[in-house]
Amino acid sequence: AAEGTKSSRRQIAGFVDFYHINMCDFDPSDIFAYPTFEAFFIRKHTGSSRPLFEPSNAARAICVADSRLVTYDSVSQSRTIWIKGKHFTIENLIQDKRAAQAFLDGSVASFRLSPQDYHRYHSPIEGIVMGFGNIGGDYYNVDPFALRSSVDILTRNHRQWVSFETKEFGQVLFAAIGATNVGTVKIHEKWQQSGAEIRKGEEVGIFQFGGSSIIIVFEKGRIAFDDDLLSMSKRAIAIDVEVGMSLGKATRTG
Fold it and tell me: What is the dihedral of CA 50, 54, 57, 61, to 10 degrees?
């Protein structure tokens, strides 16, 4: 792809200026340190730019990406408010009937990334990997207007998913979905292995060039999303969030 060529680095300065990207949040912060636009696109945060909300409290889940977020108490609510594709079910999302059973009408958090965003994504919880899947597909643009159209983007685009077992939330599903021009969705190999232990805030994977989307699903009744997030989502308004911000709390533990 053109983004991977040396000449592509010439696009970086204009991109940073156009989108007002604060390079102090990133390491390296010098735009000339990136050999290609692709390398810049998957730039890393500095260690201090995205502090985790209550890092040692496993009963508090955090936002997984710099993105626009909508939250729903249930899959059925998500279909009425925002995700209009009639085929949006957890089973269609992950193409695994058995794994989907735990999430029947579960609580859904949908994170939408734009091209200018940080394109690494992080775990909302601490837990142990139970399963992984990779599903090929078409690429449709993941944007609010498309989500309200009849094209079932979230169940037709290329995506990877990983499920975690947690003490605080029960099972948690993390699905990363490619969008326009995204050649790859890459959940890191270590999270593709059952039994791997992940910490809250640990990097799960990356998206390569383009906008993308992440769907996190909790078992029904196991998370109380923060009130400000739910109230905005009920009005079909996405809210700007950053990695590490508060997402919600476990309704029970153990």
Answer: -60
Query: What is the C-alpha to C-alpha distance for residues 34 and 15, in angstroms, rounded to an integer?
Result: 13
How high is the mean pLDDT of the chain?
87
Q: What is the mean pLDDT of residues 22-31?
A: 97
Task: Decide if 122 is catalytic.
Answer: yes
Please pick, among 8, 49, 78, 122, the residue that the annotation labels catalytic. 122
Res. 35: pLDDT tops 60? yes
* CB-CB contact of 218 with 170 (8 Å): yes
Tokens for 102? 């735990």
Decide if 231 is catalytic.
Answer: no
Active site residue 212: yes
CA torsion sign, 156 to 161 to 164 to 168?
negative
Confidence of residue 45 (pLDDT cuts 50, 70, 90): very high
